[in-house]
Design brief:
The protein has helices at residues 11-20, 26-36, 50-59, 132-146, 165-176, 196-202, 220-226, 235-249, 267-277, 302-314, 335-345, and strands spanning 4-5, 60-61, 66-72, 79-84, 90-98, 101-106, 109-110, 128-129, 150-155, 188-192, 210-214, 253-259, 282-288, 319-321. By secondary structure, the protein is α/β, with parallel strands linked by helices.
């Protein structure tokens, strides 16, 4: 489809569009300002002429972010949005409140190709990658719905962000643009399951975005059994890329580690994890694994989680246990979309 989503353009692109239409340059700033506030309906852009509004409606896609479902947790106020895109694909977005403000977890793809065995997203199939504007739209529209500015963004929802690398970079630039959303780079985190070439590219960008790596195992054998990406890039290659990122950016890496009962939660795994991560400036984020129908994996018992965390701490690692939020609304990524896909197929 030739038309772009209305949020895909940055300010220089809007200036080029306005120039092509024979309109004064300040019109581009007006349009970009409205969009950065989450206003994507031209009729609500009150300082634009009828001619410009008609042109926008003719030239761009607007209906790419309709809310299919909106759930609010009774436990902690976490909000989950299911957005339906213009071509029928669905994505999930989760809005969480912390002491520092609102944090949003956005999707980068409709589905995921990575095939991690424990992930609900992998079991729902792959649709397509999102555009930069569709990533930005999740932030703008959820924030507008909440009536509050988003404090931080994690690209950790459905999809592998580095499998959509160019659009991811486009989103980061749009989000960080001081004339647009103006979200500080240090308030943005990108999560990857370990696409090594893109990790090395990412270490070269001039932006202080945080990097999170989904590790989930302390060695190649175990990682290959649960994460197919480990068959392409070894643990050594992955950790070497992490060291390169650390050296190039001088930034700490977060390693995500979901704990599965009897799989990767043993004291031996904890000790081995300490050995392989030794010398890397990092933080380990332990996760109480999500369970869903059809999965062979079960979350670790509370006593196993505590023992694992205690061993890491004893060995000098910086470690936290991720706070579980929105469990009553299936806030974990992929769970709701998977249900919708299965219902559609049925």
């Amino acid at each position: 489809m030739d038309k772009k989503f209305i949020l895909d353009l940055d300010l220089p692109a809007w200036e080029a569009y306005i120039k092509e239409k024979g309109q004064p340059k300040f019109r581009a700033v007006q349009i970009y300002s409205w969009l950065s506030k989450g206003v994507i309906d031209p009729e609500k852009m009150t300082n634009l002429s009828k001619e410009i509004k008609a042109g926008l409606k003719e030239d761009f896609i607007f209906e790419s972010m309709s809310i299919e479902k909106h759930l609010v947790s009774k436990l902690d106020g976490t909000q989950k949005f299911v957005f339906r895109l213009y071509d029928g694909h669905c994505i999930e977005t989760v809005l969480m409140r912390y002491k520092t403000g609102l944090s949003i977890c956005i999707s980068s793809q409709a589905g995921c190709k990575m095939g991690c065995r424990f992930c609900a997203s992998a079991h729902a199939g792959f649709g397509r990658s999102l555009t930069r504007g569709e990533m930005l739209g999740q932030v703008l529209l959820a924030g507008s719905y909440a009536g509050e500015r988003i404090h931080s963004v994690v690209v950790m929802g459905i999809g592998e962000p580095f499998d959509n690398y160019e659009e991811l970079l486009g989103f980061l630039n749009l989000a960080n643009d001081e004339k647009g959303l103006n979200l500080g780079a240090r308030h943005i985190t990108v999560s990857t399951c370990g696409l090594v070439p893109q990790m090395l590219q990412f270490s070269e960008i001039d932006m202080q975005v945080n990097l999170s790596v989904s590790l989930h195992a302390p060695n190649d054998t175990l990682r290959k059994s649960i994460m197919p990406i480990a068959n392409r890039y070894s643990m050594q290659e992955l950790l070497d890329a992490c060291r390169t990122y650390e050296q190039k950016t001088n930034r700490r890496i977060t390693f995500e580690y979901s704990l599965f009962d009897g799989v990767n939660d043993t004291p031996e795994c904890a000790r081995e994890l300490c050995r392989v991560l030794k010398g890397i400036h990092c933080h380990i984020n332990l996760i109480a694994a999500n369970e869903f129908d059809g999965s062979d994996f079960r979350r670790s018992k509370p006593q196993s989680v505590k023992a694992f965390q205690d061993l890491l701490t004893k060995n000098g690692m910086t470690v936290t246990l991720r706070r579980e939020m929105g469990s009553d609304i299936m806030a974990a990524c992929g769970q709701l979309r998977r249900g919708l896909q299965e219902k559609k197929e049925t």
